[in-house]
Amino acid sequence: MTRTVFAGGLVIDGTGADGYVADVTIDGGEIVSIDPSSDSHGRVPVRDLSGRAIAPGFIDTHSHADNAPLRAEADVSKILQGVTTEIVGNCGISLAPRSRERGELLRSYLERFFPVQEWQGESFGDFLALTDQAGYITNYAPLVGHGTLRIAAMGFEAREPTASEAAEMRGMLEAALDAGAVGFTSGLVYPPGRFAGTGELVDLARSLSGRPALYASHVRSESGDRIAAAEEAITVGRDAGVRVQISHHKAMGKAHWGEVALTLALARDARASGVDVRFDVYPYTASSTSLTSCLPARLAGLPNEDLLAALRRPEVVATLRSELAKGDWDNHVIQAGGYSGILIASTYDGRFEGQTLEEVAAGLGVGGADALVHVLLSERLRASMICFAMCEADVEEAMRDEFTSIGSDGLPPGLPGKPHPRQWGTFPRVLGRYTRERGVLGLEQAVHRMTGLPAETFRLPGIGRIAEGYAADLVVFDPAGVEDRATYTDPERGPRGIDAVYVNGVEVVSAQGFTGRRPGRRLRSA
Asked: Residue 24 sits in a domain of what CATH number?
């Protein structure tokens, strides 16, 4: 690593303070000085940033790229956006730990979300040893998932854990925190997390007390019961004495548009009473997850082979048709305005990608519910969807909140098909569409939401600011031209206007694109 001066750029330092023109000098992976702009630098290499901004590398607070280090093919979807740190293991779904007894059960379940990923070992520490050995493009800050812990201890049992099972989960959680997990996450719309009561979550979250780790939750509802779901997350924080991050804050379904303001108010009241509650958000009006999420809980909560067997039974499908026509549960089909609002994003054989369920149904000559079942059976549940169910006003309301960070919620790298464009476009989209074009945020505010705020939220020292002694994680961009190019029909397109990205002082993105370097490191909270 070479001493370099980034000269004459607009410094957006990550604190939210006004930008200023200065020279930023890095050496040995660290920022060593910020000085008034000058033409005198001796023999030190100089990079002229006239007309450009320089900011701390962006922090993706909500990533599912747990598997990225172990893939032979480099995942460049985030680094091309200026992301230099990813928080992985969200929504209660981490790749470790696993038990010898239920390792195959976890593996098959993870296929609903991840490409097949084989690795040796059982503990969270075993998994991190493998990712450390493989190396990182972006810095890597892992969370440990409640759903993964529950599968290891008790499989998919829809009941309270026994005392010994609860103790086993606590032991694995504490071992993961000791190994380097920066927090504990739940996914309460997914099995087996949805089977857990609030008391179970509080009991586990108490293991975080006295540590810098936090509790992050994909709450139990983002639609009809979203207020109660947010209140539950706050209860976990209050009763366990831990900080809370509510994931991908949104209101799903037209009947609930406008309710983002209500959950923001709940969080303000909670903070006033001593519970630190924050959010992350992505800048799109469509969500994305496993296609199995369209199913009611009684089906989605089954292990893979049991679910496949159920979907082959005519009487089950007949009941499902009726259930999917009703709006008295968190029904993605109703939230999306019908089967035309559910787009197939990825499947393993590619037959249905880019089609809505309505289009699949028309091609098969069946109804929408039967088309859903057909895709799930054909793909053995390994299919993801994009669900168009949110409104622009709520996205903007969530983004304006001073305690809301930016996260992509991008699906794991390596899945086939047409993933949600957020995987390739989130951060430039905030800077372009929502900052420069729509004025939802000022430039300094937008950068703060992507840098200093998430670094503080996840207690990640030494990143997220341009200041002496901080890591030389830097992004150089054109404020007047930065924009996302990823679309729902052509999602794997990098942005415009990101000139360079440095991770720990090493240039990982240049004018020619990804340099092939992997200088990232695993981060721990402190």
From this structure: 2.30.40.10
